Fold this protein.
Amino acid sequence: MKLQVIVTLKKDVLDPQGSAIKSSLSNMGFKNIESLRQGKTFEIIIKEKDEKVALSKAKEMCEKLLANLTIEDYSVKAIKE
Amino acid sequence: MKASVIVFPGSNCDRDVKISLEKFSIKTEMVWHADTKLPKSDLVVLPGGFSYGDYLRCGSIASKSRIMKEVITHSKKGGLVMGICNGFQILVESQLLPGVLIRNINLKFICKNVTVKVTNNKTNFTSKTNRNSVLEIPIAHNEGNYFASKDLIDELEDNNQIVLQYCDATGNITEQCNPNGSIKNIAGIINKKGNVFGLMPHPERASDEILGGMDGSLIFKSLK
């Protein structure tokens, strides 16, 4: 089963990289961007047929390593191929 | 006193730290990250560098390495732990210290001498310094911007856990002398129990006149 994990910075955490990307886009002519936040995605292929079990494993991975819960939020979903 | 310096793949200040510790008569052993046993030590040092190439988040993968279980046990028993630069990042990732270190606010790798004020000299790591004295020690990092919730910062202040703060040459803590955007100009903190210390400046790079300064040696002299 293929899973997608998205890790993003929490709302109140500064994102200097996101700000730099936003201002670069704005210099390129993309003027209407109100906000831009950078995050990470992980594609995980796991040997597991039960979607519920797979998702709970992915959550555990986020809590233990993939995300730092002090500054980051995460979401997990299964990807149908 | 005996110390262990943990060597992770990508550590690059490990030998400098060993030289500094030994200069101040602390017997030092190097310990590989994959080892499962920590030699008998009073102090464990997590050195600077780029453990695991800074993949995922700085220090995150090193914080899960085998030896870290031993380091955590050592700290829970009251043993001293000092994390310098990447070592500090490993300490926050392993939750031995609160908060996180995020990307410098100007997005630049900063490598220069800075001045830091010793806000708390009543620790096992700063006892040979004077309170509010100013030390000149180099920094070299890309992710040294200390961040924590307001509640946590209040707690750190109430418990005197802020040990070093970026300041100007005369000790004023201002925004202009904050190199990386750290809340409250934080350069180093200690845990509540007082046995785990993390700092972004590199005292081992200011422990010999030939390197341009001796201020960092006060940290090594304080260790007890």
